[in-house]
Amino acid sequence: MADQSIVSALILGLIEGLTEFIPVSSTGHILLAGHFLGFKSPGNTFAVLIQLGAILAILSVYAAKLLRIAFALPSSPEARRFVISVLIAFLPAAVIGALAHDFIKTVLFETPMLICIVLIVGGVILYVIDRLPLQPRYTDAMKYPPSLAFKIGLCQCLAMIPGTSRSGATIAGALLMGTDKRSAAEFSFFLAMPTMVGAFALDLYKNRDALSSDDLLVIGVGFIAAFIAGLFVVRSLLDFVSRRGFTLFAIWRIVVGTLGLIALLIWG
How far, rounded to the nearest angstrom, does the alpha carbon of residue 63 sit from its chain's CA centroid? Predict the structure, then answer.
């Protein structure tokens, strides 16, 4: 059973790393895969805790840029405005996530049918947005005004419904508000850092008494897998969406959601 859990954790960790930063909902994929693998974790905390691997992946890729921003803070108004914009965008999810944490984990995370439906609906919305003849006004994530950042942060709150996708909600919202695809994806990367760290810390605190040493081993395996897969995605995603857009991810969501629905209706 322990070996089976480790194999499941490895699979789910790879899924987390491959899907966290693309608009397909990593949490939705992990919860559905865990459902069909028969994988359970205390308080459904595995899906959040292995995000640490994805967090470290994006931090390692953006380490040089983050250091440049940090060193520029005392002298650069642009650097200060960017950091403030990211924190403003993070604030809505921080407040709502803390208030609704128990409902999200005990109700929404336990409803595979809802996840499949949201995957399909979100895929259709993303496909339509990707096809709209939008004229971008903002092409540099570092120069997004705080007001735009706050609105993107409100869009991120939709991702508390599993299957929505944090990156999908922020990118789709940003595109509709006048950004180009590359900068929308990059701002989503930066917004992911405080959001995922906050979610990780809150979940670890809430479930600190429910985790055992065996759980930590399984989470560690998922963490390593998520880190390796996340490195690959972060390094390649911006160039991909600049050339191809988000249609592939929209189709993927619809296919996965439809197959999930079929599987749930057949096997439960």
Answer: 19
Residue type, 205: Y
The Cα 234–Cα 186 span in angstroms is 10
Q: Which two tokens stand for residue 256?
A: 């996965």
Phi and psi for 138 in degrees, rounded to 5? Answer: -120, 120
Nearest to 207 by CA among 41, 2, 77, 37: 41
Query: What's the pLDDT score for residue 140?
Result: 94
Average pLDDT over residues 191-211: 82
Which pLDDT score is estimated for 231?
Answer: 92
The burial class, CB within 10 Å (0-12 / 13-18 / 19+), for 258 is middle
Q: Is-contact 74 250, C-beta < 8 A?
A: no
How many other CB atoms sit within 10 Å of the CB of residue 39?
21
Q: How far is CA 235 from the centre of its chain?
A: 16
Q: Are 20 and 226 in contact (CB under 8 A)?
A: yes
Looking at the chain, the whole-number percentage of residues with pLDDT higher than 70 is 95
Residues 6+ apart with CB under 8 A from 135: 178
DSSP letter string, 153-173 = HHHHGGGGSTTS-HHHHHHHH
Could you report how far apart the first and last alpha carbons of the chain are, in Å? 22
CB-based burial label for 209 (10 Å; 0-12, 13-18, 19+)? exposed
Domain boundaries, the chain: 2-267
Report yes or no: 138 and 183 within 8 Å, Cβ to Cβ. Answer: yes
Averaged pLDDT, 82-94: 95
